[in-house]
Design brief:
It is built from five helices and 21 strands. By secondary structure, it is α+β, with helices and mostly antiparallel strands.
């Protein structure tokens, strides 16, 4: 290992474990400059191997070489925390950067129903009844994985078509499927230091009409690593807002960055709603006072108004997202360029 690499790891580990409550701004700024300079000297190692996918222990896993970078929970969790009522499926965890930094969290102690990268509706209404499909422990509703089809997309990229259903149950009644979902998911490396995840969601009502009820959080969501918080990470939106003023606001993208054992990482979440549905989605994000600012980001099309689930309302029936997780920082200009390139603007 080169002297630059050794120094980089040493400083990066200090930055990762150091309590970031230091009041001396000059010290914190200097530490960031040192870490960034050393990272630029050392560069990122080219990941070895090729993509491979297999189903193990109830989930679809994707590896690049020996590194597990993605897993889709295709069957209910076998031994969930909190008992059988938390036996969830149809979510993505773990998700990792090429260096192995795990940027999703599943069943954290404060919210056992939070599941990495997942997209349940909070409330839906069917035949005059309202069902909570977010807190699955209540037993009213849940997004459930039903099938997996691997797609042929090329040697440097993996792809799947995941079939899911939203299942609801009245108190004392039988469960029934009321929404059919097709989730088309693609996974690829971007150079040597980033993973790109594409998610397209198409939903249709089964039988009775379905309304997606308005609520302050609902839909495409990310529960981030507990290693990041208000003291050592930064959140920025496409509208220039941060952790403490972005909640409830419109945004095309959100980027969260922070330290890792090997340097820094960033997670950029992008929504195509402004193109697909004619308006950007609103955000639910946790501020500095909520769970110490651990990352939670939700793109929500029903903050202000309920919407029927039909083709005339693509804001809920036809959604499209891209996530870039990188072993480097992503600034506002780079995030905007990523969003524009993705949508061909």
């Amino acid at each position: 290992m080169s002297e630059a690499s050794t120094a980089e790891r040493t400083v990066a580990k200090v930055a990762y474990i150091l309590p970031m409550r230091v009041e001396n701004y000059s010290f914190k700024r200097a530490l960031g400059v040192v870490c960034g300079a050393l990272a630029s000297v050392a560069g990122a190692a080219e990941p070895a191997g090729t993509w491979a996918t297999a189903t193990r222990a109830g989930r679809v896993e994707a590896r690049h070489g020996e590194s597990l970078l993605f897993a889709w929970q295709s069957e209910p969790l076998a031994a969930p925390l909190g008992g059988a009522k938390f036996a969830a499926s149809a979510f993505v965890h773990p998700l990792r950067t090429p260096s192995g930094f795990e940027w999703t969290a599943v069943q954290p102690a404060d919210h056992l129903h939070h599941l990495g990268l997942w997209w349940p509706w909070k409330f839906i209404e069917v035949d005059g009844e309202r069902y909570n499909c977010w807190e699955i422990q209540e037993g009213q509703g849940a997004l459930v994985a039903r099938g997996v089809k691997q797609l042929e997309v090329g040697p440097d990229r993996l792809g799947w078509e995941f079939t899911n259903e939203v299942v609801v149950r009245k108190a004392g009644g039988e469960a029934r499927a009321v929404i059919r979902e097709t989730a088309t998911v693609g996974l690829a490396l971007r150079g040597s230091d980033a993973v790109v995840l594409d998610v397209t969601l198409r939903q249709q009502a089964l039988g009775s009409p379905v309304t997606i009820v308005n609520y302050l959080y609902s839909g495409f969501s990310w529960r981030g690593t507990s290693a990041w918080n208000k003291d050592n990470s930064r959140l920025l939106t496409s509208e220039g807002q941060g952790r403490d003023d972005a909640n409830g606001q419109l945004a095309r993208w959100v980027v969260v960055s922070g330290p890792t054992p090997n340097g820094s990482a960033a997670v950029l979440l992008m929504s195509a709603a402004s193109e697909v549905a004619g308006t950007a989605e609103r955000l639910r994000v946790w501020d500095s006072k909520t769970t110490n600012g651990v990352p939670f980001v939700n793109f929500n099309p029903v903050v202000n108004a309920a919407l029927p689930l039909d083709e005339a309302h693509p804001a809920v029936s036809n959604r499209k997202y891209r996530v870039v997780a990188a072993d480097r920082l992503i600034d506002a200009a780079a995030a905007e360029a990523e969003w524009r390139q993705w949508l061909g603007k």
